[in-house]
Structures are given as C-alpha cells and as structure tokens.
C-alpha cells in the first residue's frame, strides 16, 4: 500500500523523530530497539538499513501476532501472565532508543478476554517502562512510534485499504519531496506556541463545548510539550496537569479500540481529581474495569489540544495515535486517564523522584488511555494575575 520511495521517506521521518525525541545526541554504537508488527516488515527493513548507515546498532524485535496474543491471554496461568523473559531488564537498562512500528492485523481479537488479565500483564510490565522513563529523564533514551496501514485498521475505520493508506501518507507528508523539512517547520511553529503557553502561567484551564464542562489545574512547575518526535504523526500540544485539581464533565465523542474492545461515547465526571461517574454508549463495563486497574487509573494524566491547521487527519482512524491528532473542522481536545508524563516537569526531570512527583500531583498508573473530543470548543485560562485569556477556539490556538 506504500511505495518503496514512500517507505524510505517514512523511515527518514522516523529517524528524525527518534533523534528529535532525545535531549542528548546519539553516538556511533548506540543501541536502538526496533519493535514491529509483522505487517510492518517492509518499513522495519527500511528503518534497519538507515540505522546501520547512521552507525547505530539496531535490535529488531517482532511483536506477538494476533493469534499469539489470543493464546497468551486465553491460556496463560497466573505465573505466565506476569512472566518477564530473561534479559528484559538488561535490555531496557542499555538501549539508547526505541522505534515502535504499529501494524495490527486485528483490533478485536481480545474482545472476549477478561480485561483483568490484560491489566495484570500490563502492571507486571510497568517496572520495565519505569526503567525507560528514568533513562529518558536523564537524557539517555529516546523513542518514536508510528502506524503502518493494514486491512484490519481500514475495516474498523470504515475505509478501503487504499483510502486508509492515503490518510497515513497525507498525515506524515510522504508525498512531499522532503517530508523531514515539513516536520522541522512544524516543529518550529509548535515551539513558538509552547513558549507562549508556558509564559502565561495559567492557574486553571476551563474547557467548554456542547458536552464538556471541565476544569483542569496545570499545576506547579509544569510546561507544555508537543511535536517532539515521539509520535509520528503528532500535532498535539499537551501537559500533564496536577490531577488533584480536575473537576467537571468530559465527553469523548471519538470512539476508540482498546485491548480488543470497541468503546464509544465515554462520559466521565471528575470530583476532587478522581472520576466519580462513568457512562458510555458502548463498552461501559470495559471502561469501568480499565479505570479500576490501579489507584491512578481514575485520575487525569494528560491534557492536550491539537490545532486543525497542523493536521491533515480528517477521518476516524481506529487508532489512538491518529485519532488523538485529529484535525478536521474543529481540531480536538483529548485527556488521558492514567499515567503522567514526567518530562512536562519544568525543571530537571532526573531530579524528579517519586516523592516529589506525588507532591506536585503527577499521576502514576499502569494505564494511559487517551479519550478524544472533536466538538467545537473554547478553552480559557485563568492566570495568576487574575486575567482570563482564551487559549484555543474554533480548532486553533489563539496565539
């Protein structure tokens, strides 16, 4: 579905994302994990060759197939659910970068699986993720991820495979003669918006749309991030707020697939930072189980806005990476329940230990689930000097 020239351009963009996502430059001999689904093999081959040409050491890893995942969650006993292969800790302590090439063949193969089993495995893997978070905070690790179009994704998004691939090509600017140059330009534009947002020193944010009336507290020593190379594509600008200051109603009009479950029309009510009411048009029981995964799963870990002028994505893509970057006529706002991003700390993240994270209201959880609202909306900030400023309206930042 992607031509060889497009695959090579995609690989170039991913290398730009990988190098941009890390504060320290890569050195010859650094180790980069390349984790890919089977359908993304051709893209993995292009990435592998380019990493070698940069003097890096790629470590390719094929992810579980849909059948393997079904067998694992269906047949694994309690010990097997939490089992970690020998060498995993050593690998995570020594890789300098990671590239994740997502190409799911199926989105619903785990629909009959008990979400508690999936949650048990996710919690067991969290210490590995914590290793990488710590190394990223020290500037020793960077990562990026992308999506490769598959027939399974196209089907669930209600598109032909050709149309779905066209959305990926458009979103990543792969028809441009030099897509990396486009990404560099967007990076600079986003940097100006982030500087403006960070200078405002907002005490609280108020989001209003037809079905949203939500107050979010950015929190002390926070900064806005986005377009950092971590996700390809990524047009969002986000922060991880102080979860304790969240109150009001949120509605995700954009459906989502998660762990084989289709969820639609999620409505959450927050009180004193915690979700107190849950409703969904479809998949409500699954939502409840996800938000009960651990104490942090029912708290806010991220608040994000996407400017419609940046993003070419105008269709539901049945994948969070794309849906959280939806442009369309009104842009989007999304929140994530679950874990925070420690790099939104306005200081040296390496000095941000667990105690300090708790003091500042950074949330901790094995869950991170983005829920997207694409309604027309207005976001106003209440500033420390008492003024109210409109940050975002009609799908774009008011910078």
Structure description:
It is a single chain. It contains twelve helices and 20 strands. Helix 7 crosses helix 8. The mean pLDDT is 95. The strands form four sheets. It has an eight-stranded antiparallel beta sheet with strand order 14-13-10-6-5-18-19-20, with helices on one face. It has a five-stranded parallel beta sheet with strand order 2-1-3-4-8, covered by helices on one side. A five-stranded antiparallel beta sheet has the order 7-9-15-16-17, with helices on one face. With 399 residues, the chain is an alpha+beta fold. The radius of gyration is 20 Å and the shape is globular. Strand 1, helix 2 and strand 2 form a beta-alpha-beta unit. The chain folds into two domains: 4-177, Thermophilic metalloprotease-like (3-Layer(aba) Sandwich), CATH 3.40.1830; 180-397, no CATH class. Helix content is 33%, strand content 25%.
Main traits of this protein?
20 strands; five-stranded parallel beta sheet; 2 domains; alpha+beta; 399 residues; Thermophilic metalloprotease-like
Gyration radius, in Å: 20 Å
Using the alpha-carbon principal axes, give the shape.
globular
Main pleated sheet: 8 strands, antiparallel
Strand content: 25-35%
Put simply, the count of helices is 12
Determine the fraction of residues in helical runs and give it as a percent range: 25-40%
Unreliable stretches covering 5 or more consecutive residues: none
Number of domains: 2
Which strand order does the major sheet show?
Answer: 14-13-10-6-5-18-19-20
Structural class: alpha+beta
Q: Report mean pLDDT, rounded to a whole number.
A: 95
First-to-last CA distance: 38 Å
The total beta strand count reads 20
